[in-house]
Amino acid sequence: MKPTHASTTAHSSPNAQSVYLDDLTVGDRFQSGEHAMDEAQIKAFAAQFDPQPFHLDDSAARSTLFGGLAASGWHTAAITMRLQVTTGLPIAGGIIGAGGELSWPRPTRATDVLHVVSEVVQIQPSRSRPDRGMVTVRSETRNQHGDVRQLCTVRIVVPRKPAADGTGAA
């Protein structure tokens, strides 16, 4: 879908063009493509980056608060980022974070098929740098049943459209 200024517009970016600060409106929504999880991915990520028993061994995980094998929250965050970059948030110049909050209300499981739904909640043009602004985006990483696995609210730097003469913001 092509971005529009309507706050009820849902965007999906496999065919979307890059969007600039000037294209966004509070309430704009974006949905990513999907990523299917499996046990091998969970264990491989955990072995390299978060080697805790509940991420590595289903038997050991059963006696924990997870009640079974669970993906590392950082694995869910990494998948979320990939989905946002490749199919979720078509921000001109890329997704450049400037801070935020992250939580995992429920664990990601090997049977989950994840996608990300994001909404623009605040837009603030920069006073000191007219070529950009800050956009606050709230994202939910959900599984195939719509269950939220990760909540993330981030501030990202978004460029303004270049002026026709190429000298800065339009």
From TrEMBL:
MaoC-like domain sequence ranges: 33-137
InterPro entries: HotDog_dom_sf (IPR029069), MaoC-like_dom (IPR002539), MCH/BMMD (IPR052342)
Protein name: MaoC domain protein dehydratase
Record organism: Acidovorax delafieldii 2AN
